[in-house]
Amino acid sequence: MTHKTIIITGGAGFIGSHVVRLFVNKYPDTKIINLDKLTYAGNLANLKDIENKPNYKFVKMDICDFEGVLKLMQDEKVDGIIHLAAESHVDRSIKDPFTFAQTNVMGTLSLLQAAKAAWNGEWEGKRFYHISTDEVYGALEMTHPEGIKPPFTTKASSGEHHLAYGEKFFTEDLKYQPHSPYSAAKASSDQFVRAFHDTFGMPTIVTNCSNNYGPYQFPEKLIPLFINNIRHRKPLPVYGKGENVRDWLYVEDHARAIDLIFNEGKVGDTYNIGGFNEWKNIDIIKVLINTVDRLLGRPEGADMDLITYVTDRAGHDLRYAIDSSKLQKELGWEPSLQFEEGIEKTVRWYLDNQDWMDNVTSGDYQKYYDDMYKGR
Ligand code: NAD
Ligand code: TYD
């Protein structure tokens, strides 16, 4: 690591907390500043184990605060930014697109402007790394609903379930076709980052990753929400027919990819990150039910009757599937975990950390949750 001081935005969120932990532990000579506004999704309890490390600092700040970010960058002589802060939940973006444009688009632009002002054209040794999603590419067709052998095998997909649901995958050269306000805002932010590279020569990198799962994910997203509901025998709201396909990656494997790309990725380039690990929602849900039941000593599958089909999400993208062969070939990255291992670890973590779950599911979040799901 050649960088001396890095800002990681959104470090109190799900993926950000794993990235902060990895960098703080792996690079003791680099100062890691976690810049986070602490929205409903930001939780400093995610970082309890590293909060007293000498190379870690937390700053509560909005990425939209241009003056504040500029001063922080100048005072701390920041030479790298890893940008994860965002509004990240599709259902919320359908209810409140404005907040998504404000944080994801204007916030990213503000951060770029602050970095440009702080670095003042001296790009040597600097890096602005923007974390994005595969959802910017839109949705893929499901030409093979029964599943076919995928073109590549990785550790993430080498378990029992190893199918693709179409011949096409998201590659880096695809046209952006976002459908949800969330993905539209992320797509716009990606384009601003590339524009700062092309116009000003800023040393930027963009990566687009598939769905992440693992510890510390806010329980509004499918996997933690359903683990918690199964535990408490609450209904599992499956959107539509549960046939939508997502490509799942264990969050620590994403964090490892971010580390590799931040240090060795090509400036100005884009990399897709994913594990060739496609699952229909309903199949994942059945795995979650069986795993929770087994770990709680209930008869396996006893909770299948919790599955409750509800009105589909508006504009629900049918299939996401990432082709990450560029990253695998150019930088030698591979997922480390087989999906079955990752899910087992994840379910165990949520069952063992009920305090964490109770903490984030109380108060304002609960009210929001009730409003959103009332009537479903
Ligand atoms: P998250 O919602 O769990 O965390 C977001 C974090 O950003 C929170 O800590 C929040 O407090 C902070 N934040 C929000 N607005 C802010 C602002 N204006 N200023 C400063 N901080 C702010 O999100 P996540 O799932 O960890 O996703 C992190 C990033 O990775 C996002 O950019 C997301 O688009 C991208 N991504 C997520 C996934 C996924 O499956 N979760 C997949 C691919 C890419
Ligand atoms: P989610 O975790 O919100 O991630 P994303 O929408 O970014 O892919 O949802 C994953 C999939 O699960 C998606 O197809 C929507 C579906 N889903 C449900 O069926 N029910 C739910 O309650 C949630 C939160 C998601």
Describe, in short, the structure shown.
This protein is an alpha/beta fold and 376 residues long. It is built from 12 helices and 12 strands. It has helices spanning 14-26, 66-76, 90-95, 97-119, 181-200, 222-231, 251-264, 281-295, 325-331, 339-352, 354-360, 364-373; strands at residues 5-9, 31-36, 56-60, 80-83, 127-133, 204-209, 211-213, 236-239, 245-250, 270-273, 278-280, 307-310.
Notable features of this structure?
single chain, 376 residues, alpha/beta, Rossmann fold, 7-stranded parallel beta sheet, 3-stranded mixed beta sheet, 40% helix, 15% strand, globular, disordered C terminus, binds nicotinamide-adenine-dinucleotide, binds thymidine-5'-diphosphate
Write the layout of secondary structure elements.
Layout: E1 5-9, H1 14-26, E2 31-36, E3 56-60, H2 66-76, E4 80-83, H3 90-95, H4 97-119, E5 127-133, H5 181-200, E6 204-209, E7 211-213, H6 222-231, E8 236-239, E9 245-250, H7 251-264, E10 270-273, E11 278-280, H8 281-295, E12 307-310, H9 325-331, H10 339-352, H11 354-360, H12 364-373
Parallel strand pairs: 1-2, 1-4, 2-3, 4-5, 5-6, 6-10, 7-9, 8-12
Antiparallel strand pairs: 9-11
Helix pairs in contact: 1-7, 2-4, 4-5, 6-8, 8-10
Bound molecules: nicotinamide-adenine-dinucleotide and thymidine-5'-diphosphate (TYD).
Nicotinamide-adenine-dinucleotide (NAD) is lined by residues 9-10, 12-16, 36-39, 41-42, 62-64, 84-88, 103, 107, 131-133, 186, 209, 211-212, 218.
